[in-house]
Amino acid sequence: MKSGVRIFYNTLFYVFLTIFIVFLLLCFLAKKSDSGVSIGGYRIYDILTGSMSPTIKPGNLVVVKEILPDEVKENDVITFKSGITNNITTHRAIDIVNNNGKTEFITKGDANNIQDPLPLDGKLLVGKVEFQIPYVGGILRFVQNNKFIFILIFLFIIFIDFLLNSKAKNIRKRV
Q1: Tens digits of pLDDT across the chain (175 residues)
Q2: Which of 30, 67, 99, 125 has the fewest CB atoms nearer than 10 Å to its CB?
Q3: Boundaries of every domain in the chain
Q4: Per the CATH hierarchy, to which homologous superfamily does domain 38-134 belong?
């Protein structure tokens, strides 16, 4: 019976450890995506504003596939660098214009009443949103902003695992 409890605690520990490592990796990728980190042609972004609500809500994480401007279709949700602020933005391509062989997009946030003020040059396209993961972006933002607390929680979990394993070893030595 005691070995079953030990197996349960070890499994629980390794599940938490795996989740922690995945969150650290996602935090790193989400933070570095703005500066050019791409894994297998995909980037991840945390949605900060409600401009795409209800399609994509703030706090969701979006996975963006890098594509060429001529692969974008009307009504695709795309991610791009803003020509004005150089920020990363995710909006819907409501129209595609070919201007002297140059692809431009007319974009609009689903929650916005009007389209974006300037056409988007195809060179600023990052990619097309493939899917989203609800709430994970908000959790990642919390972890990024509270790294110390998250590290303390992780160290506490390791400490508890150490105590449980050392207690189990003492019990086995007595038997």
Answers
A1: 567 777 887 788 788 888 877 777 776 666 655 555 678 899 988 899 999 999 999 999 899 999 999 999 999 999 999 877 888 999 999 999 998 889 999 999 999 999 999 999 999 999 999 999 998 888 778 877 887 887 888 788 788 878 877 766 666 566 5
A2: 99
A3: 1-36+140-175, 38-134
A4: Umud Fragment, subunit A (2.10.109.10)
pTM of the model: 0.73
Q: Encoding tokens for residue 12?
A: 């629980």
Measuring CA to CA, which residue among 42, 68, 72, 69 is closest to residue 132?
A: 42
In whole angstroms, give the CA distance from residue 142 to residue 169.
Answer: 37
